[in-house]
Amino acid sequence: MKQFIAMALLGAALSGCATMAGLSEPPRVSLVSITPTNVQLFEQRFRVTLQVQNPNSETITIRGLDYEIAINDKLFAQGVSGKPISIPAYGESTAQVEVVSTLQRVLEQLQEFGSRDTPSIDYAISGHVSVDGIPIPVPFEFRDKLTLPGFEKREKDDGNRPFKPKTKAIAI
Fold first, then answer.
1. Where do runs of H (alpha helix) occur along the chain?
2. Domains of the chain, with CATH numbers?
Protein backbone atom coordinates (compact mmCIF):
# COMPACT_ATOMS: atom_id res chain seq x y z
CA MET A 1 0.00 0.00 0.00
CA LYS A 2 2.87 2.36 0.81
CA GLN A 3 4.35 1.72 -2.64
CA PHE A 4 1.03 2.57 -4.29
CA ILE A 5 0.78 5.86 -2.38
CA ALA A 6 4.40 6.70 -3.19
CA MET A 7 3.82 6.00 -6.90
CA ALA A 8 0.62 8.07 -6.90
CA LEU A 9 2.43 11.01 -5.29
CA LEU A 10 5.33 10.68 -7.73
CA GLY A 11 2.90 10.64 -10.68
CA ALA A 12 1.10 13.72 -9.37
CA ALA A 13 4.41 15.54 -8.83
CA LEU A 14 5.68 14.67 -12.29
CA SER A 15 2.46 15.70 -13.99
CA GLY A 16 2.70 18.96 -12.07
CA CYS A 17 6.20 19.51 -13.45
CA ALA A 18 4.95 18.94 -16.97
CA THR A 19 2.07 21.37 -16.47
CA MET A 20 4.38 24.00 -14.98
CA ALA A 21 6.53 23.82 -18.10
CA GLY A 22 3.49 24.45 -20.32
CA LEU A 23 3.17 20.82 -21.39
CA SER A 24 -0.39 19.73 -20.69
CA GLU A 25 -0.26 17.09 -23.45
CA PRO A 26 2.76 15.05 -24.56
CA PRO A 27 4.09 15.65 -28.07
CA ARG A 28 2.67 13.30 -30.72
CA VAL A 29 5.30 11.46 -32.72
CA SER A 30 4.43 9.52 -35.88
CA LEU A 31 6.38 7.73 -38.58
CA VAL A 32 6.43 9.39 -42.01
CA SER A 33 9.03 7.36 -43.90
CA ILE A 34 11.93 4.94 -43.53
CA THR A 35 14.76 4.67 -46.07
CA PRO A 36 17.79 2.36 -46.04
CA THR A 37 21.05 4.34 -45.90
CA ASN A 38 23.79 1.81 -45.15
CA VAL A 39 23.38 -1.94 -45.44
CA GLN A 40 26.16 -4.12 -44.07
CA LEU A 41 26.11 -7.82 -43.33
CA PHE A 42 25.37 -7.55 -39.61
CA GLU A 43 24.02 -3.98 -39.33
CA GLN A 44 21.51 -2.00 -41.34
CA ARG A 45 20.97 1.73 -40.93
CA PHE A 46 17.83 3.58 -41.96
CA ARG A 47 16.92 7.26 -42.19
CA VAL A 48 13.57 7.80 -40.53
CA THR A 49 11.40 10.86 -40.96
CA LEU A 50 9.24 11.57 -37.94
CA GLN A 51 6.39 14.04 -37.66
CA VAL A 52 6.24 15.67 -34.24
CA GLN A 53 3.10 17.59 -33.26
CA ASN A 54 2.77 19.94 -30.32
CA PRO A 55 -0.83 20.00 -29.01
CA ASN A 56 0.10 22.58 -26.34
CA SER A 57 -0.39 26.33 -26.09
CA GLU A 58 3.35 27.06 -25.79
CA THR A 59 6.34 26.35 -28.03
CA ILE A 60 8.34 23.34 -26.88
CA THR A 61 11.93 22.37 -27.60
CA ILE A 62 12.78 18.71 -27.71
CA ARG A 63 16.40 18.21 -26.64
CA GLY A 64 16.59 14.55 -27.51
CA LEU A 65 14.77 11.37 -28.44
CA ASP A 66 15.20 7.68 -27.86
CA TYR A 67 12.97 5.46 -29.94
CA GLU A 68 12.36 2.02 -31.34
CA ILE A 69 10.37 0.74 -34.29
CA ALA A 70 8.42 -2.50 -34.03
CA ILE A 71 6.93 -4.34 -36.99
CA ASN A 72 4.21 -6.89 -36.30
CA ASP A 73 4.92 -6.50 -32.56
CA LYS A 74 8.60 -7.44 -32.93
CA LEU A 75 11.47 -5.02 -32.39
CA PHE A 76 12.91 -4.02 -35.77
CA ALA A 77 15.23 -1.07 -35.14
CA GLN A 78 16.15 1.49 -32.52
CA GLY A 79 17.96 4.78 -32.25
CA VAL A 80 18.69 7.99 -30.40
CA SER A 81 18.98 11.60 -31.47
CA GLY A 82 20.34 14.64 -29.66
CA LYS A 83 19.38 17.11 -32.39
CA PRO A 84 17.09 19.80 -30.90
CA ILE A 85 13.65 20.26 -32.44
CA SER A 86 11.59 23.39 -31.78
CA ILE A 87 7.86 23.00 -32.30
CA PRO A 88 5.53 26.02 -32.19
CA ALA A 89 2.36 26.01 -30.12
CA TYR A 90 -0.29 23.89 -31.85
CA GLY A 91 2.24 23.25 -34.62
CA GLU A 92 4.26 20.45 -36.07
CA SER A 93 7.73 19.76 -37.36
CA THR A 94 9.53 16.91 -39.07
CA ALA A 95 12.75 15.37 -37.86
CA GLN A 96 15.26 13.22 -39.72
CA VAL A 97 16.72 10.59 -37.40
CA GLU A 98 18.61 7.33 -37.81
CA VAL A 99 17.74 3.83 -36.62
CA VAL A 100 19.89 0.73 -36.56
CA SER A 101 18.75 -2.82 -37.12
CA THR A 102 20.52 -6.17 -37.21
CA LEU A 103 20.60 -8.97 -39.74
CA GLN A 104 18.71 -11.19 -37.29
CA ARG A 105 15.85 -8.68 -36.95
CA VAL A 106 15.60 -8.17 -40.71
CA LEU A 107 15.52 -11.93 -41.33
CA GLU A 108 12.85 -12.39 -38.65
CA GLN A 109 10.69 -9.74 -40.33
CA LEU A 110 11.08 -11.33 -43.76
CA GLN A 111 10.16 -14.73 -42.34
CA GLU A 112 7.15 -13.27 -40.53
CA PHE A 113 5.98 -11.42 -43.63
CA GLY A 114 6.25 -14.57 -45.76
CA SER A 115 4.10 -16.59 -43.36
CA ARG A 116 1.30 -14.07 -42.78
CA ASP A 117 -2.22 -14.67 -44.03
CA THR A 118 -2.87 -10.99 -44.53
CA PRO A 119 -1.14 -8.42 -46.73
CA SER A 120 -0.89 -5.85 -43.95
CA ILE A 121 1.95 -4.79 -41.73
CA ASP A 122 1.37 -3.50 -38.20
CA TYR A 123 4.02 -1.04 -37.11
CA ALA A 124 4.71 1.10 -34.08
CA ILE A 125 7.21 3.69 -32.99
CA SER A 126 7.65 4.32 -29.30
CA GLY A 127 10.15 5.95 -27.02
CA HIS A 128 10.79 9.06 -24.98
CA VAL A 129 11.33 12.73 -25.73
CA SER A 130 13.37 15.03 -23.50
CA VAL A 131 11.63 18.41 -23.43
CA ASP A 132 13.21 21.64 -22.15
CA GLY A 133 11.84 22.52 -18.73
CA ILE A 134 10.71 18.99 -17.86
CA PRO A 135 13.11 16.98 -15.69
CA ILE A 136 12.07 13.52 -16.92
CA PRO A 137 11.64 12.13 -20.45
CA VAL A 138 8.07 12.07 -21.75
CA PRO A 139 6.95 8.73 -23.27
CA PHE A 140 5.26 8.47 -26.67
CA GLU A 141 3.81 5.70 -28.81
CA PHE A 142 2.29 5.65 -32.29
CA ARG A 143 0.73 2.55 -33.90
CA ASP A 144 -0.65 2.07 -37.39
CA LYS A 145 -1.22 -0.53 -40.07
CA LEU A 146 0.00 -0.53 -43.65
CA THR A 147 -2.11 -2.54 -46.09
CA LEU A 148 -0.37 -3.52 -49.29
CA PRO A 149 -2.57 -2.91 -52.34
CA GLY A 150 -3.04 -5.50 -55.06
CA PHE A 151 -3.09 -8.56 -52.83
CA GLU A 152 -5.82 -10.68 -51.32
CA LYS A 153 -5.78 -13.27 -48.56
CA ARG A 154 -4.28 -16.53 -49.68
CA GLU A 155 -6.50 -19.48 -50.24
CA LYS A 156 -6.23 -22.49 -47.92
CA ASP A 157 -4.65 -24.72 -50.59
CA ASP A 158 -2.23 -22.14 -51.96
CA GLY A 159 0.92 -23.99 -50.88
CA ASN A 160 3.87 -21.92 -49.71
CA ARG A 161 2.98 -18.66 -51.41
CA PRO A 162 1.86 -16.17 -48.78
CA PHE A 163 -0.12 -13.91 -51.14
CA LYS A 164 -1.94 -14.23 -54.38
CA PRO A 165 -1.96 -11.11 -56.60
CA LYS A 166 -5.34 -9.89 -57.76
CA THR A 167 -5.55 -10.35 -61.50
CA LYS A 168 -8.22 -9.49 -64.01
CA ALA A 169 -8.77 -11.08 -67.39
CA ILE A 170 -8.13 -8.69 -70.23
CA ALA A 171 -10.04 -9.17 -73.48
CA ILE A 172 -7.85 -8.79 -76.54
1. 2-20, 103-115
2. 21-137 (2.60.40.1820)
CA 73 – CA 67 distance, rounded (Å): 15
DSSP, collapsed to helix, strand or coil, labels residue 17 as helix
pLDDT tens string 105-159? 988 888 877 777 777 889 999 999 999 999 999 999 999 998 877 655 544 445 5
Task: Count other C-beta atoms under 10 Å from residue 103's C-beta.
Answer: 13
Q: How many CA atoms within 13 Å lie on the side-chain side of 91?
A: 11
Other beta carbons less than 10 A from residue 125's beta carbon: 22
Phi-psi region of 22 (alpha: psi -120 to 50; beta: other; left: phi over 0): left
Total Cβ atoms within 10 A of residue 49? 14
What's the whole-model pTM score? 0.69
CA-CA-CA-CA torsion sign (35, 39, 41, 42): negative
- Number of other CB atoms surrounding residue 138 within 10 Å: 18
Task: Give residue 60's pLDDT band: very low, low, confident or very high (50, 70, 90).
Answer: very high
Q: How far apart are CA 117 and CA 172, in angstroms?
A: 34
CB 37 within 8 A of CB 45: yes
